[in-house]
Specification:
By secondary structure, the protein is mainly alpha-helical. It has helices at 2-31, 38-45, 49-55, 59-85, 89-106, 108-118, 127-150, 159-179, 186-201. The chain starts with a helix and ends with a helix.
Length: 204
């Protein structure tokens, strides 16, 4: 009985933390980090402000954890698709890339807070944010290396440059989509971006 009570408390604590992070992502995306207060985040998350401080020391601590939380959600969303797709590294690369566009389309607040607020600022240099981004970028590097070894991509292709092209294209397409009122089909643009870069990577 005591064990069950502890588990329920732990689950409630995890749920509350997630509520706070979700509210922060939406508000940071809608209003900007500087213009969003912890009081607003607590209200949006439906938790007392004092409870928010049980999880996050200050707004900076909350900002730093937002990317980690969203990347984890992105991985969770992509994993079943990757398992179903099989081992082909090019297929895995395409799914990994397009899953990000789909996640942003479904969570535009995350897209705005990351690509327009965090990434262009000094906040991106924070060690935890940098580790989250590096971990994500490494997924591309590993899959590109596998595609090179399989003979699908050019032997002299620099996997780090290829990753930079993919992520740079994603950043630009997403930023324009957000800045101009989401007027085009983000997934369609993402697919076109991948197809263009993929053609350049192919073994000739």
């Amino acid at each position: 009985m005591a064990g069950t009570t502890v588990k329920l408390k732990q689950q409630r604590s995890r749920d509350r933390r997630q509520q706070i992070l979700s509210a922060a992502t939406k508000l940071f995306g809608a209003k900007g980090i500087d213009r969003t207060s912890l009081t607003e985040i607590a209200s949006h998350a439906k938790v007392p402000l004092s409870s928010l401080y049980d999880y996050f020391e200050d707004k900076q601590a909350l900002v730093i954890e937002v990317p980690e939380d969203n990347f984890a959600a992105l991985y969770e969303k992509a994993e079943p698709l990757l398992l179903k797709a099989g081992p082909d590294p090019v297929v895995q690369l395409k799914i990994t890339y397009l899953s990000n566009f789909e996640y942003i389309r479904e969570n535009p607040g995350w897209g705005r807070v990351f690509f327009l607020e965090i990434w262009p600022s000094v906040i991106a240099a924070e060690p935890r944010i940098r580790r989250s981004v590096d971990k994500y970028a490494l997924r591309y590097v590993q899959l590109i290396k596998q595609a090179i070894r399989s003979g699908a991509y050019q032997k002299n292709l620099d996997p780090y440059l290829a990753m930079s092209l993919l992520m740079g294209g994603m950043c630009h397409v997403t930023a324009v989509w957000l800045l101009y009122g989401r007027k085009y089909d983000l997934m369609k643009k993402g697919k076109a971006m991948f197809a263009t870069l993929h053609e350049g990577f192919l073994r000739t």
